[in-house]
Write a structure and sequence with these properties.
about 60 residues; alpha+beta; two-stranded antiparallel sheet; 1 helix; 2 strands
């Protein structure tokens, strides 16, 4: 691998997210899905994202 300047944005993201001592490849998996529909960009949370947005006033461990 070359210098940081030779890396793509995706390579830099992967490198940063897997640099921690206990990091795994799963840590670098995409968490969003970006799509374009008739000129409108849509950003969705990936179905398999380990952390999903929710109600900040509720404990996520309680259902």
């Amino acid at each position: 691998m070359g210098t940081e300047d030779d890396m793509t944005a995706e390579e830099k993201r992967h490198d940063q997210l897997t640099a921690a001592p206990d990091a795994t490849e799963d840590d670098a998996k995409p968490r969003i899905v970006v799509s374009d529909h008739d000129g409108v960009t849509r950003i969705d949370i990936a179905d398999d994202a380990p952390v999903r947005p929710g109600d900040p006033t509720k404990d996520p461990r309680e259902n």
